[in-house]
Structures are given as structure tokens and as C-alpha cells.
Specification:
Among the domains are: about 90 residues, Ubiquitin-like (UB roll) (Roll), CATH 3.10.20.90; about 170 residues, no CATH class; about 80 residues, OB fold (Dihydrolipoamide Acetyltransferase, E2P), CATH 2.40.50. The relative contact order is 0.03. With about 1150 residues, it is α+β, with helices and mostly antiparallel strands. The chain contains 19 helices and 13 strands.
């Protein structure tokens, strides 16, 4: 029988739990929640929040694999919780119906008589049993409280784990992005890129073949400047935004630490409060003391009984009472601590709810900043801005990394060239050759098989046994010459020497030391890649040797595997064939050995006689058998009687004697053949032994030959590998030789070009000599002209002296004019300064007016915000008033209505009146969904800051233009804010006023009323309904009062038989008391009330005359309750009717009804 497993569901706030057997029968999660809401008295299913162990949200598909579920009430996660709800969780699971242990009823210190000791012991033992019973109840209650406290701690831990896992993921994601932004900010180059650019300018020119590369030419200075400006503008905004988010993340960590601190504080408090208390020890003390009370008086009598009783009274009873008091105090302490946990829980829940809200906001901000699809284009900082900053930083990093990147490009182009060379020539060409050789081997085998076997089969029917072999065509697709790549290198062929020269150039230059090390490592990786291609080429070139096996002229394989298969199969067949041949020869010899002793027939034909002796009579006669075929004798068997009789009928000349002689001869021949057969079998056994020995020797020889063959094949494979390597090296040498030939041809071409150039230069030299001769002639002509020019110069100098005097006069006049213009310029400057002072004063007045206007606008907007908020608060109060009256504001199909809703009644109302009218408590937050619409229409208030307007700082050190721009910016912000709220086709403020005034899209509750106010109409209608209901109730109450009076007057003269009260009419009868010892005093004669199920009601006869009466009817004046105690049991004053101990009786005073 399998054990039943349960799912335990805990109430996280009160600690109660319930168990549900598995498998869970609820089909969906809402059904499961509905059951839990009914079990834990939570009205709304949406208020439930479920977690499993370790703070994991419930996956209902795996509900049968979960052992524990914690149920949380979302109503306790808000800041302003309902105290009644919290008190309901405190009073939900523990009933406060256990009173403290009573004091021992042994207060009488007078000397007790022996007859009274037994009663006292009985009272003492009854008290001990009661203490034990209360202690057991306290133990169960304490265990339940401990379990509930542990459940609350477990639920807090699970909730904290849920919040931690929820927030840690978002924090880790944010830290990743935050570190990324900090790294960009730390390594930004927008300030220092110019120095790197200058260092790149000083770098030597890189020469590769006939091309020259200056690395700085690859960069655009203007683009770098724009990138640096963009980074300088956007990067501080990005870091500032992420700084704000980092502050939010820090507050989240602080909140999480605060929650952990509160939980840990509660744990430490529980440890400190209950660490010295052991429930089991206290219960053991109570049980042992109660057990001693029950056992110590069992076998004691007389004086010892009183001694034991006094001992218990002085010590044991006190210890038992103290232990029970300790247990009760422990119960109260657990109860108080549980109540404290429940009251402190909403504080933790509120922090976790706020933490979750902050986490969601942080996650939304991260998505808006780091994901392109969610980013809003209107935000200044978005995903695209961050990516643009990253691109600009990458562009600026080229000023440092350009030498390294250029080296990487050189190495990669060379690696691709070598890979392509090996792939096209080594891999593709060799693979094509190897596949072709495999096909040739197959063709040779088929042709040899056709010669050996197919030629014979062609005699039957002409056929083609060679067939057509598949043709493999391997072509190289995607020629690298057709695709243009590495445009940076301008189609220059890169050699390894070029790479080495470039690395050495970087080592000599003033660049980072890591660059040439990285390039050398990358260069080694390129060599390794080429070596890998070499190994692949060697492997492909050896494919043909795998299928190539040496064959003989007849096409028989002579390899190792074929020889082994032949030795195993063919040798066995050959041995069996030789044995069969030997046995056949021996058999023929034995048959021909006694040929002279064969039977001779006297009469008839010999051939006929042979047929009659050898062939069966049932078979048809065949042709005569030749005498020289003695093998037919081996097929004979002894003739049967039927054959002999048939032979007698066919051959009449034969006799019985001849047949007898023939039989004797046949028997003799049979015995001889048997002996010979045994001899042959012995010879065969001996030969088998020799064959077995020969086989063992052959196996040994085969093993030795196999080892020799393996060694020879290894040497052969080694030689073949060396041959392939030599062949591959020959191919590589041929490639190098071809390259050298190409270089030599290029050099020859350059030599021829140089020779042609020399011839042209010689021609040019002759031409230059001719030109020199002509130039010498021109020089002589120019010298003559120079002399003429000197003469002209002297004439010009004389003219210039005369002109200088004229220029001096003009200079003096120009200086005077210049001084006059300067004086006018000074006057204009003074006028300009005066004008600027006037404009500055006017600008200050304008700025002051603009500042005051900005202040007025901001103040008005703040006043409007406060007015709108007061409207909203008034609206909330109206909604609360409506809900307190049982009315609810709703919106149906865009129309606002006020309806009577029964679900708004207070749960504590006990009235059961008509139309479900009950007293309703005013809720702190109304439940109307229209409030959400009003709140959404009030979002414009978020744009208005509650802080007072502060004008921009316009210090005297700042520029006036900057101040003007500041005032303009502030004015533009206020104008844009004003337009957003009060401008446009549908202003937000107008929509809010229109919505909260409830003038349009409304349906009046009482359309017949004269009041058109939306709320006033509904309230007046509600008051009318309540007033009408009150009138009906008053009328009904009057009718019921009249009925009650009638019933009271009717029941006034009826005798009561139970549940006696004042003014009831009772019948008393005299009763007999057997316990009264001969006392016939009528004053103590018991008169009992006639009753049904209400005994011990006795008549007070002190004021009544009962002489000669057998019954009396009286109206009750008072009823006094009495109880027979041990002290009063024998007192006639207190127990006048001699009732038993503990009986409750009543003394009734009446007025006789006549």
C-alpha cells in the first residue's frame, strides 16, 4: 500500500495551514486560488499571491511536484493597511479560551479532622487533574504557536528570496551596462585623440613593393573632430543618466539589506526570548507532579495520610502550581511574539513591494536605454545615442590602433593567399588526381575479370561486364581574382618579408610595445595555418595508396589481407580435394584387385546376366553394361526374393548352386573390403595426424612470414611516405623555382627597360649639348642686353629720387587725414558704448519682467495643480460617502452611473433588513474604477514641479548673452509645459475639468428629480429610498409591538414549567425529604416547582401561609442561585434541603396568585 503524499499550504501572515492530498484535483490555477480564498477567508481571489519554497513563483503545471506553498495577502503589501484586516489575522487561528491555572483550594489552615481529610484529598486530586488537563491544552496550544511562528519565519524567508532573485537579476544586468558605460567614460579619447593623431603623423611611411602607405592618410581629421565633439556632448549625459540609475540600484540594495536586517532581528529576538525555555521539560514536571498526587495517597491510611497530605500541601502542590504558571506564561509569551510578528509583517511587505516597484522601473529604464525596439525617439538619451557614442569612440581609437590594424590586414591577406594557393593547387588538384587513380584501379580490375571470366560468359550472351565508371569532375568555384577585398592595401601582393619588415619598422617607431608582439604572434598563427594546410595536402595525396593493391598477372591479390583469406579458405579446400582423390584411387585399386574371382555364368549372355544381378527388378532394363566398368559393382545390394524369382523367370539356365557360390564370393569380397576399409581408416587417421602437424608447422611459418611481411610493409609504407614527401617537396621546389623564374623574367624585363632608358638618356644628352651651344649664344646676346639694362637703371634711379620727394609730401598729407579719421572713430566708439549701456539697462528690465512672468506662470500652474488635487480629494471623499451609503460610481459604455451595489456592505453588520440596507463603514480608499480614469487624466500634474520657481543664476562674471539665453530657455520650458497642459486641440486641463465636473456623459439616478447635480441626485434618491424604508420599518415595528403586547397579556396567566424568570407564574407542590431525621417542621418542608427539565427550584416559605394547602400558585419575585459546597454540605442553614455536594439549587420568592 503506497503512502499518500500531501501538498501543505501555509497562510504566510497567520501561520495556519491546510493539507491537500496529491494529485491535486483542481484543473486550473484560478480554481485552486478560489479554494484557497475560501479556506483562508480571503474575499477576492486577485488578492492572493502564491510562492513555493525558496521564493519561486508557482508553476501550476508542476503543482504535484511541490511540497509547500505559501499564500500571501496583497492587501497587506500597501503602505496604508486596514487595521481590522490585520487584527483578523491575529485572532484567526488561536482561541483565547484558556484561563490561568487556579489556586489550590486548601486555604483553610485549621486543624482538619480525619473524617475531613478524605474530602480534602479528593479536592486536591481533582485540582491536580484539572491542572494537568489545562497543561495538556497549553502544550498543544504552544506547539501550534511554535509551528505558526516557524511558518511566518519561513514565509518571510521565501518572500525575501523571491525579492532577492527578482532584484538581483535586474541589478546584475544593470551593473553589466553600467560597467560598460564606465569603461567607455574611463577610456574615452575625445580629449586626447589629437596627440595620438600627431604621433601617427610622425610614423614612417610604409613601403610595400612599389606602393607607399602613410597610415595617417587613412583617417579623416574632420570626421574625427566631429566624433570627438559628439562624444564630449553626449557622454556626460549618458554617465549622468546611469549615475541616477546607479543611485536607484543602491537604494534597492539598501532596502534589501533592511528587509534582511528586520527578519534577522526578529529571529534573534525569538532566540533570546525562548532559548532558556524547554516545553518538554515543563510538561514532564507537571506530569510527574500530577502523577505523584494521584499515586502517593493510594496505599496510605491513618496518621500517615495526614502527613503525606501536609507534605503535598507544603511542597508538591506549590511546585505543580509554579510549573503550570511557567507553562501559562510561556504560552502568553509565544502568543505575544506571534502577534508582534504579524503586526511587524506589513512593514517588511511594504518595503518589498516598493523594492519590486523600483526594480520594475529600473528594468524599464534599462530596456529603454539599451534596447533599440523599446527606446523612445523623443528621449535625448536612448539606445541609438549610446551606439553612436560607441562608434565615435571606436573611430577615435583608430588614431592609436591604426598601426596594429594595418599589420593585421597584411598578415590576414597573406594568410588568405597561402590558404587559397594550397587549397586550389594542393587540396583540389591532389584530390582530383587521387580520385582519378582510384577509378583507374577499379577499371583495371574489371578488365582483368572480363578477360578471365567475362570472355566465357560472352559465349552464352554478349554482355558488357566492364561498364561505365563514374566520372568525378572537381572544379574550383569562386575565383579570388574576381572579388575585390582588402581595398586598404590597393591590390598589392603581400610577401612574408613585407610583414617582417613592417613589424621591424614598428619596433623602431614610437608606438606601443604590445603592437609588434601581437603582430608576431599573429604571424606565427598564420604560419601554423599554412602548416595545417600542408598536412591536409599530404593526407589527400595518400588516398590513392589505400585502394592500390599489388596484383599478379591473373588479377589475384598478393596483399597481406588477401593472402590471409586465401590461406584460410583455399588451403582447406585443396586439402579436402587431395584426400578425396586419394580415397578414390584406393577404392579403384581394391575393385580391380580380385577381378578374376568374379562370378562366371555358364548359360546365357554375360551382359544379360550382369543386368539381372546388378539392376533392381522393379527398374526398367538399361543398356548392356560394359565389362570394364567395375565401379557398378559398388552400387549393388543383396538381391531380394522377388528379384531372384524374377531372375529365374528371365534366365532359365541358372542354378541354385551358382547363386550360392556367387553369394559366398560376394561375402568373401565384402569381408576383404571391410578389412581393407579398416586398414584405410587407420592410414587415414595417421595421415590426419601428420596433416595436423603439418598445419601447425604451416601456422608457425605463416606467423613468422606475417611478421616479416608486416616489417616489410612498414618499411614500404615508410618509403612511400618519404617518396610522397620528396614528391611534395619537389612540387614545392618547383613552385619556388617558378616564382624565381618569374622574378628573373621580371628582372630581365627591368634590365631591358633600363637599357632602353639609357639609350634614350644618351640621346637626350646629345640634345642637351646642342641646346647648351645654342644657350651660350643666347648668353652673349643677354649680356649685351644687360648692359643696356644697367644704363636704363641709372636713368630710373634719377627719376626715383625725384619721385621720393613727391611721395614724402603725400605721406604727410595722409598722416594728417589718418589722425582726423581716428578722432572720428573714437567719437563713434563713445556713442556705441553709451548705446550699449542703454540697451543693457533695457535688457535687464526685460529680463526682470520675464523672470517675474515666469514666476507668476509657475505659481499659477502650482495653484492649479493644488486646486486640481483638492478637486480630486473632494471627489475621493464623495466616492467614500457614496460607498458608505451603498452606492458605487461606475462607467458603462462611456457613461458614468451611480448604482446601488450590495457588495459594499460592512462584514460586521448583523442587520437583516429589507433591500439589504445595513450600516456600512467608510473605507479609506474607495473601490470605484472611475478613480483610475480621473488619475490618468491628472497625469499632467506630474509635469508641474511642487518646488518654488528659482530664477537662473545671472552673476556678474557671466556673459550677458549667456544670461539672456538662460532666461529664454526657462521661458521656453514654461511655455512648452503650458502648451502641453493647456494648449492643443484637446487640452489636458480642460479634459480633467470636464471629467471631474461630471456634466457630460452621465446618467442621473433619479431622472424625475428636480436636482440635476450628478452626485446630489443620486444621494437624494438614496435618502428618499432610506426614508421610505424607515417609514415602512416604523409601521411594521408598531404592528409587532401590538402583537407582542397581545402575546404578553395572553401568556401572563400561563404556568411556566422551565426557564423560570421573574414575573413567571409557577406551581409549587410539597415534596418529601428522606434525609431529614424526624424533623417535621413545616418551615423546612421543601416545596418544589412543577418543572420539566428544571429541577431544584424550591419555594421560599418564610412569608407564606401554607397550612393545609396541597399546592400553591405564585408569581416569581426573585430567584436566588445556590451551590452545595463541601463546607456547607452538612449545614442546615445553607443546605436546608440536604442536597448532594456540588448541586446547584434555586430559592424562589413568590407572591401567591389568588
Amino acid at each position: 500500500m503506497s503512502d499518500i503524499s500531501y501538498l501543505t499550504v501555509y497562510n504566510a501572515h497567520g501561520g495556519s495551514f491546510l493539507k491537500i492530498p496529491k494529485p491535486i484535483r483542481f484543473p486550473t490555477l484560478p480554481d485552486f486560488k478560489n479554494y484557497l480564498s475560501q479556506s483562508f477567508s480571503i474575499d477576492n481571489v486577485d488578492d492572493l499571491f502564491l510562492l513555493s519554497s525558496f521564493g519561486i513563483k508557482i508553476n501550476y503545471n508542476l503543482i504535484n511536484d511541490i511540497s509547500e506553498v505559501f499564500v500571501y495577502d496583497k492587501r497587506l503589501f500597501i503602505s496604508d493597511i486596514d487595521r481590522k484586516l490585520l487584527d483578523s489575522y491575529i485572532l484567526h487561528s488561536v482561541k483565547d479560551d484558556i484561563s490561568p491555572p487556579q489556586q489550590l483550594p486548601l486555604a483553610d489552615t485549621r486543624k482538619a479532622y480525619s473524617s475531613d481529610i478524605s474530602n480534602r484529598i479528593k479536592l486536591y486530586q481533582a485540582w491536580a487533574r484539572e491542572i494537568l488537563q489545562i497543561s495538556n491544552a497549553l502544550e498543544s496550544r504552544c506547539s501550534l504557536l511554535i509551528q505558526q511562528i516557524n511558518t511566518i519565519f519561513k514565509s518571510l524567508t521565501a518572500l525575501f528570496q523571491f525579492a532577492t532573485s527578482f532584484t538581483t537579476e535586474v541589478e546584475n544586468n544593470f551593473n553589466h551596462h553600467y560597467n560598460y558605460i564606465n569603461l567607455i567614460s574611463f577610456k574615452t579619447l575625445h580629449k586626447s585623440w589629437t596627440e595620438s593623431y600627431k604621433n601617427l603623423q610622425h610614423l614612417h611611411v610604409v613601403k610595400i613593393k612599389d606602393k607607399k602607405f602613410k597610415l595617417v592618410d587613412f583617417l579623416d581629421y574632420e570626421s574625427l573632430g566631429r566624433a570627438a565633439a559628439f562624444v564630449a556632448k553626449q557622454l556626460p549625459l549618458i554617465t549622468g543618466k546611469f549615475g541616477e540609475l546607479n543611485n536607484t540600484a543602491k537604494t534597492m540594495k539598501q532596502d534589501r539589506a533592511r528587509v534582511d536586517e528586520l527578519i534577522e532581528k526578529a529571529r534573534k529576538e525569538s532566540i533570546e526570548r525562548f532559548k532558556d525555555t524547554n516545553l518538554n521539560e515543563m510538561m514532564e514536571t507537571v506530569k510527574s507532579k500530577a502523577q505523584s498526587v494521584a499515586a502517593d495517597f493510594s496505599n496510605v491510611q491513618g496518621v500517615l495520610l495526614e502527613q503525606v497530605f501536609n507534605q503535598h500541601k507544603s511542597r508538591t502542590s506549590i511546585e505543580l502550581k509554579n510549573a503550570a504558571d511557567d507553562l501559562y506564561r510561556y504560552y502568553l509569551s509565544l502568543k505575544a511574539f506571534r502577534e508582534q510578528l504579524i503586526r511587524d509583517g506589513p512593514k517588511i511587505y511594504s518595503i518589498i513591494a516598493n523594492l519590486q516597484m523600483k526594480t520594475v522601473n529600473l528594468k524599464t529604464e534599462i530596456k529603454s536605454l539599451m534596447e533599440d525596439e523599446i527606446a523612445e525617439k523623443s528621449n535625448t538619451i536612448n539606445h541609438q545615442t549610446i551606439q553612436d557614442v560607441k562608434k565615435c569612440e571606436d573611430m577615435l581609437s583608430l588614431t592609436i590602433d591604426m598601426p596594429l590594424l594595418f599589420g593585421f590586414a597584411l598578415i590576414e591577406k597573406r594568410r588568405q593567399f597561402e590558404w587559397y594557393d594550397f587549397y586550389s593547387k594542393g587540396v583540389v588538384h591532389n584530390f582530383s588526381e587521387q580520385v582519378t587513380s582510384i577509378g583507374e584501379h577499379e577499371r583495371a580490375f574489371r578488365e582483368m575479370w572480363n578477360k578471365k571470366v567475362g570472355s566465357f560468359l560472352n559465349y552464352i550472351k554478349d554482355d558488357n561486364f566492364v561498364g561505365v565508371l563514374p566520372n568525378v569532375d572537381i572544379t574550383l568555384v569562386g575565383n579570388r581574382d574576381k572579388t575585390q577585398n582588402f581595398l586598404l592595401l590597393q591590390n598589392v601582393e603581400i610577401d612574408r618579408n613585407d610583414i617582417v619588415d613592417y613589424i621591424s619598422l614598428l619596433e623602431k617607431s614610437h608606438v606601443s610595445t604590445n603592437f609588434h608582439e601581437l603582430l608576431r604572434k599573429n604571424f606565427q598563427d598564420m604560419k601554423q595555418s599554412t602548416n595545417n594546410m600542408k598536412r591536409i595536402t599530404k593526407l589527400i595525396s595518400s588516398l590513392g595508396s589505400v585502394s592500390e593493391l599489388q596484383t599478379d598477372k591473373m588479377g589475384n591479390q598478393t596483399g597481406k589481407e588477401s593472402s590471409e583469406n586465401f590461406d584460410l579458405d583455399l588451403n582447406v579446400v585443396n586439402g579436402l580435394k587431395s584426400r578425396i582423390k586419394k580415397l578414390e584411387s584406393l577404392l579403384h585399386q581394391q575393385q580391380y584387385k580380385n577381378i578374376t574371382n568374379w562370378p562366371v555364368f555358364r548359360n546365357g549372355n554375360y551382359s544379360d546376366n550382369r543386368v539381372s544381378m546388378i539392376l533392381d527388378s522393379k527398374e526398367p532394363l538399361s543398356a548392356p553394361i560394359v565389362k570394364s566398368d567395375p565401379t557398378k559393382l559398388l552400387q549393388k545390394r543383396t538381391p531380394s526374393k522377388e528379384s531372384v524369382s524374377s531372375n529365374q523367370s528371365q534366365f532359365l539356365d541358372s542354378s541354385v548352386v551358382d547363386k550360392h557360390l556367387d553369394n559366398i564370393k560376394l561375402r568373401r569380397a565384402n569381408t576383404e573390403l571391410t578389412a581393407e576399409n579398416e586398414h584405410l581408416l587407420r592410414e587415414q587417421g595417421a595421415k590426419d595426424e601428420t596433416i595436423l602437424q603439418l598445419r601447425q608447422e604451416m601456422e608457425k611459418l605463416k606467423a613468422s612470414h606475417a611478421k616479416e611481411v608486416e616489417s616489410l610493409e612498414g618499411k614500404l609504407a615508410q618509403h612511400e611516405e618519404e617518396f610522397r614527401l620528396y614528391k611534395l617537396e619537389g612540387k614545392l621546389d618547383s613552385k619556388e623555382f617558378e616564382n624565381l623564374e618569374k622574378k628573373l623574367e621580371n628582372k630581365d624585363q627591368t634590365i631591358t627597360q633600363l637599357k632602353n632608358r639609357i639609350s634614350t638618356l644618351e640621346q637626350e644628352r646629345t640634345n642637351h649639348e646642342q641646346e647648351m651651344a645654342s644657350l651660350s649664344e643666347t648668353i652673349t646676346i643677354l649680356r649685351s642686353e644687360l648692359n643696356d639694362a644697367n644704363r636704363m637703371k641709372n636713368d630710373l634711379l634719377s627719376n626715383m629720387s625725384s619721385k621720393e620727394s613727391e611721395f614724402a609730401q603725400e605721406r604727410t598729407t595722409n598722416k594728417n587725414e589718418l589722425t582726423r579719421i581716428k578722432s572720428k572713430l573714437d567719437e563713434v566708439n563713445e556713442d556705441y558704448e553709451n548705446l550699449m549701456e542703454l540697451t543693457q539697462v533695457k535688457q535687464q528690465k526685460h529680463d526682470q519682467i520675464a523672470n517675474e512672468l515666469n514666476t507668476v506662470v509657475d505659481t499659477l500652474m502650482n495653484k492649479l495643480k493644488l486646486t486640481s488635487e483638492s478637486f480630486f480629494e473632494t471627489f475621493i471623499e464623495i466616492c467614500c460617502i457614496l460607498e458608505s451609503m451603498g452606492l458605487l460610481l461606475i462607467k458603462e459604455d462611456g457613461i458614468f452611473k451611480i448604482k446601488r451595489v450590495k457588495g459594499l456592505k460592512s462584514k460586521k453588520s448583523t442587520a437583516n433588513l429589507e433591500d439589504d440596507v445595513s450600516f456600512v463603514s467608510v473605507a479609506a480608499t474607495p473601490t470605484s474604477k472611475v478613480i483610475e480614469d480621473i488619475e490618468t487624466s491628472m497625469k499632467w500634474t506630474e509635469e508641474i514641479s511642487s518646488s518654488p520657481y528659482l530664477p537662473p543664476d545671472s552673476s556678474s562674471d557671466d556673459n550677458e548673452i549667456a544670461n539672456v539665453e538662460k532666461y529664454n530657455e526657462e521661458s521656453e520650458k514654461l511655455i512648452s509645459r503650458f502648451n502641453n497642459i493647456f494648449g492643443g486641440e484637446k487640452p489636458q486641463f480642460d479634459l480633467f475639468i470636464k471629467l471631474i465636473s461630471f456634466k457630460d456623459n452621465i446618467q442621473l439616478a433619479d431622472e424625475n428629480s428636480s436636482s440635476t447635480g450628478f452626485f446630489l441626485n443620486a444621494i437624494s434618491k438614496r435618502f428618499k429610498d432610506v426614508e421610505g424604508f424607515a417609514k415602512r420599518q416604523t409601521k411594521e415595528n408598531k404592528l409587532k409591538d401590538q402583537e407582542i403586547r397581545k402575546l404578553a397579556s395572553r401568556n401572563k396567566h400561563k404556568i411556566s414549567i422551565n426557564s423560570f424568570q421573574e414575573n413567571d407564574l409557577l406551581l409549587f407542590l410539597p415534596t418529601r425529604d428522606d434525609n431529614v431525621m424526624g424533623n417535621h417542621n413545616e418551615s423546612i418542608q421543601p416545596w418544589a416547582a412543577f418543572n420539566v427539565g428544571a429541577p431544584h427550584y424550591f419555594l421560599d416559605t418564610s412569608n407564606l401561609n401554607l397550612n393545609g394547602k396541597e399546592w400553591i400558585i405564585g408569581r416569581v419575585q426573585s430567584i436566588k442561585e445556590n451551590k452545595v459546597s463541601p463546607e456547607q454540605i452538612k449545614s442546615l442553614e445553607h443546605n436546608r434541603f440536604q442536597l448532594s455536594l456540588g448541586v446547584t439549587w434555586y430559592m424562589v420568592q413568590v407572591i401567591e396568585d389568588k
